[in-house]
Amino acid sequence: MDIAVQQNYLDAFKGRFTSLMRWHQLDEFWSDFKQQADDDWYIYHVGDEPPEAPVDRSTLLTFIEEIDNLLHQEHDEDYCGIVYTDSKEAPSYIKIFDPHNLGVSCGYSEKPPLPGWILSKIPPMELEEALYPTASRRRWWERIFE
User: Fold this and answer.
1) Rounded CA gap, 43 and 49, in Å?
2) What ranges do the domains of the chain cover?
């Protein structure tokens, strides 16, 4: 993958996001999103090999239905708060956290949990490796600058 595309993806990942805090906000967001859905979206299950091609609109809509059902069933709270978007009106990057892997939700963590799924208009890259390199890779990197 082109380094510029990788950097764009990381920049987008680290960018500003708005939480869809309440269930009705998520429902409204999905309703609007479905109207705008096209064939330019990548669906990345973080931890798996990133997809090389976007999905078609039909696959995207099926995923939205399935993930929405999963979130409503498995996030047993009176609020949502585990879906974040770069824009409620014209999204291009959406982070969806797995209800069973939320980690530290308040406070500080050196390794905060990654989203379970990411929808993006940018081709995805392997996030765990990019954000949390292995200890051997860090030692190699540190030796260069000793």
Assistant:
1) 11
2) 3-144
